[in-house]
Amino acid sequence: MTIRPLAKERRPTLYFLREIRSFAPVHLDTEVDMTRVGNHRTAAREGGRHYSWLSYVLYAASRALAAHPEANAAIHGRFRPRIARFPSVYGKFTMDHTVNGQRVVLSAVLPHLQVAGLDSIQRQVDHYTRGDAEELPEFAGARLIRRLPLLVGGAAYRSRIRPLRTRAAAIGSFAVTSLSHSAVDGFHSTGGTTVTLGLGRIVDRPVARYGEPAVAPLMRLNLTFDHRVIDGAEAADLLTDIKQALEGFEEDIPTEDTDTNDVGELKQFVSAHTRGQRIPLHEDVLARIHTDADGDGSWTAEWSRSAEELERQGRLLDACRHHAMARFPFVDGPSRRKALRETVRTFDEWRRTDRDIERLEVDLPAGRVVAWATGLSDGVRRPVMVVSGGIVTVKEAWAPTLSAIRRLGLAGIITEMPGVGENTLPYDGDSWQMFSGLLDHVSDRADTSNSHVLALSFGGHLALRCALEDSRVRSVLTAGAPVHDFFSDRKWQAGLPRLTVDTLAHLTGEKPEAVLDRMREWALRPEDLRALDIPVRYVTCTRDEIIPGSDAALLREHVRDVELLTHDDVHGAPSHSAETQLWLIRSLLRAVGGKAPMSLALGLLHRLARLRASVSG
After folding, report:
1. Cβ-proximal residues to 520 (8 Å cutoff; 6+ apart), any chain
2. Above 50 in pLDDT, residue 580?
3. How distant, in Å, are the alpha carbons of 266, 324, 394, 440 from that of 335?
4. Residue 405 near residue 385, CB atoms below 8 Å
5. What's this model's pTM, rounded to 2 decimal places?
6. What is the C-alpha separation between 192 and 195, in angstroms, rounded?
7. How many Cα atoms are found within 13 Å in the side-chain-facing hemisphere of 571?
8. What would the pLDDT profile of 434-453 be if each residue is shown by its tens digit?
9. What is the C-alpha to C-alpha distance for residues 567 and 539, in angstroms, rounded to an integer?
10. What is the rounded average pLDDT for all residues in the chain?
11. Is residue 412 within a helix (H) or strand (E), and if so which, with residue range?
12. Dihedral, CA atoms, 388, 264, 220, 217, nearest 10 degrees?
């Protein structure tokens, strides 16, 4: 017999089990006829798509949870218990991984599952189950906790999962755990959430259909609920709804109406903006939205209603941000047009408390560019920082950037891409000239010979093109900008989100099926990249669903002075916004020639932000 310390790899499981000792678990179970799901799965496989049984359960259960808000909740506190009802459904699932030769259970949380399609769910499941647990950044927190001393690791774990405000994002609002790969018919588990589903294997068993014996693929579905939060009747209704959703499985098919957007895609892609801009109450608003048509529950109506309430409370900047979300992704009718007007109005009222923020209106041959500016009113000719978002971001979203630019000793101009917001320029092959036009407009009030452009996504592409022609641009800082392969790789283009293609079509005035062909000539060639003799700082994401990773590789290969920050994240790096912002500011300081102590301080903050993100993961 050998006695040895608990393996470090099992410490997170130990901390988890200690935390759930206060649960009051009650167990229910049922059998589910998986015939409809199996038929759908077979048809999908014949069409080249693979869906796991787990993904179907996550899909069905999340929609059932959304209809049972009492169960989509969590409790905390022994003597003064409090319950949080979550506005969105976060599904946790467990998986079997081997870490350092030790077999362990890991878990991942998928957000906003009640509006996610099967394809989206399966992509996320594959990411976690097929990835290397020792490399995936989402498991960095678990890796860190394993290395910490027991008392410290336990405290770190508790600090992450106990607060109700972050509970859903940390461990989900419901959990699914499966042993269906083995000869297990059913089992009950407590996953740290009010509701946990346990999946057994799917086996052909005799059933009665229309009074006749038949054989059907049956799955034992077990539900464990925390009796402190809900009672048996609620749990039984929930289990019944999940069973019926699986037995009568029908996938929600996104509308083919080209006049409306897919709400699931809207919610998915807006997360980078709500996190990066720290937009308050966004989870509550998103939970109320179920359509992109007009009326209650629609995208524009719910964001606008929230904006109006924030304005009544005197929170003008927050109201502006919510109006901007109501306009997202582009103006396609009266409701979003009104939201844009309200975005500009509330920003204009907010900025009147700051005398150094002024409105610029620049008339160019092809249209008008509107911007907000700072650092131009006191007669000092400062270096210039021009800021622009991508194809869905209005200039008002950059409001806090103005004061930051001013503190860095620069003149700042925040604007938006052609066709976005108040910019009436067409989005075409000459759009990069808007940056030069803005610099011309302020050349008598700022040192435009020392100009720097921070432009994200498609705005970054315009900035790179401008830098090739305008020597006043001394550095370009960007994130997720298309360079070459986005414009030329037809295979990559075939997998682009519909929202991206529709937005590009709107901005260019082309039909969605023709817009990418029109943009093909916009690709930057290797010789163009070699001609860039300025610092280029680029943030790339390994799971970017819009910009191919090969574009970042081209920059690394051909640009002389290039630095890349790589995140394992989706487009916009919503889980790494703090790190991205600090890295870009530090890069700007270095390009401008800022003071070393400030650059060092920002470098330290950047490293701390990366560590914090790792622990949160």
Report:
1. 487, 488
2. yes
3. 16, 12, 16, 35
4. yes
5. 0.68
6. 8
7. 21
8. 999 999 999 999 999 999 99
9. 8
10. 88
11. strand 411-415
12. -120
